[in-house]
Amino acid sequence: MKKLLISLIITFVFIDIGIWQSPHEAAAQQKPIPPYAKWGTYAMKKTQERYPHAKIIDYLHIGRVTGPRSSTEKFKLWLKDDKKEFGVFVDIEFNPATSQVIRTTFKETTR
What is d(CA 103, CA 64) in angstroms, rounded to the nearest whole number? Predict the structure, then answer.
C-alpha cells in the first residue's frame, strides 16, 4: 500500500510539472523560429570573426528595414573581452529575393 501511494504521488507530481506530456502537447508549446533567426546567426558569426577575443554575452534583434531593392536586418550584440564590455550594432543588408548579402556593417557603442 505504501509503494502504491508513493507511486501515485510521483505520477501526479510528474504530470503536474509536465514531464509526462504527449508528443502533441510538447510540439504545441515550441515557439516558431522567427524569420530573422538566420540573420542573427550570421550576425553572431561575423561579429565573432571581427572580435575573435571577445565573448558574445547578449543579443537583440532591433528590426528589419525594407527598401525598394534591399532589406536590412539590424541587431545589437553585447560583447565582453579581457578589458571591457561593449556593444556592437550589426546591420546586414541583403537582397530579399536571393538572400545574398550586400554588405555587413559594424558600429561599436558603449551602451
Answer: 15
CA angle 99, 42, 69 (to 5 degrees): 30
β-bridge mates for residue 63, sequence order: 74
Helix and strand counts by DSSP (H, E) for the chain:
3, 4
Read off the DSSP letter of residue 33. P
Looking at residue 52, what DSSP letter applies?
T
pLDDT tens-digit map of 53-64: 999 999 999 999
Q: How far apart are CA 76 and CA 69, in angstroms?
A: 24
Instruction: Find residue 93's DSSP bridge partners.
Output: 72, 103
Of 64, 53, 63, 41, the C-alpha closest to 86 is: 53
